[in-house]
Design brief:
single chain, 356 residues, Rossmann fold, 5-stranded parallel sheet, 11 strands, globular
Length: 356
Amino acid sequence: MKKILLVRLRLIGDVVFTTPLVRALRRHFPAAHLTYLVEPAAAPVVRRNPHLDEVIVLRKGSGLGRWRDDIAMARRLRAARFDVAIDLHGGPRSALLTWATGAPMRIGYTIKGRTWMYSHVVPRAPDLTTRPSVANQWALLSPLGIEACDPARDAVVMVEEPDAAANVAVRVRELGITAAHHLVVIHVSAGNPFRRWPADAFVELVVQLAQADPNRRILLTSGPSDMNAALQIARAARDRLGPAAHQVPEGREFDLAELRALVARAAVYIGGDSGPLHIAGTTHTPIVALLGPTLPERSMPWRDPRFFAEAVDAGPLPCRPCHQRTCEPGDFRCLTRITAERVIEAAERALRTSEG
């Protein structure tokens, strides 16, 4: 096996979930040239992966520009003469690019209208299956004879970038946070309203965690579109804390590489089911995951079970899990029924493992 291409477009968390496969491929084919095709938003996840030889970034684009980019990329991939191309995504764009490689072995999911583009097909688990996302993608390695996945051996990976770590060290120091403090990172963003815990619950969480220990510093993070929400939550918490407001510094925006470096130095990470949760999973930092419509069996970080990770959710509901297109009851009860008290209890358990 000389040259292998992995194609995984779009979401950050899904790209994180493919990194165990990269390690497995390197273990089974140590001399192979491994290439990964990814879109810009998730490129930081894999660009320093030690098991990859090459990372190709495909511009997302739109309209005619996207078609031109795809045609140019298809020509580039075909000229590379891959022996194996694995479509880890299953979307129309990734399927076409996998087919365009002309690789003798093209592996993808059995999907209506796209199966013909592959030489080897694997059944795709239903969207609401309880099987972990890593296992769903790992199934695509079965035509290569690779054994079942194990998080203790093949955890998710994102390598810390020295420049990002240096930037984080400076920014944290500017916020008055030192190594003597217990840093709590709370990510308040989510990809859609089906995964967004209410703002007032976040405020209660921040206030109670701060009041429980004056040595804690609580930093709120968010994606660019939710920065204003993070600022409002931090300000509301500071108003309630009064003289202890310094425990909640003004929220800052961190890029993906910086977020990974920030979480790695935290005592605990708390956040919903979004890309940053799975970035946190590439560290050893204790994690508290707030899961709404998704189930822990599918969406918890995939890492060595020695490292603390606890899910907090609303428990069994007739409408959970769901496809996250319409809230059938209309009140997002899978999120609103997660109380701040339960998250605080989980966070305290996580902090004990970190501070001990």
